Amino acid sequence: xxxxxxxxxxxxxxxxxxxxxxxxxxxxxxxxxxxxxxxxxxxxxxxxxxxxxxxxxxxxxxxxxxxxxxxxxxxxxxxxxxxxxxxxxxxxxxxxxxxxxxxxxxxxxxxxxxxxxxxxx
Length: 121
Prior knowledge:
Blueprint: H1 17-43, H2 51-59, H3 61-89, H4 93-120
Helix pairs in contact: 1-3, 3-4
């Protein structure tokens, strides 16, 4: 005879939980470190802060790759957050799907624009 303690728990939703929480924290930490790096380069630079300084900061290939990595982290951070908002607050499935598709298209467009700007420098 088996004994069942407590009630059987019914869990609903997409079950992203820990993975999303961890992704948000890791991407936020990466973006914060990148911000500190950029601020450090600006604060310890000589001369006026203008286009030449910004172009100089982002002209090195390693900085372009690092910035691209941070852009990807930012896009994933936004996607996780917006997807959770849509899943939590938009109940009609068709509206939620349309908003998620719009979010994906918007983020892909932002990624293309950011990469174009980054490699133009």
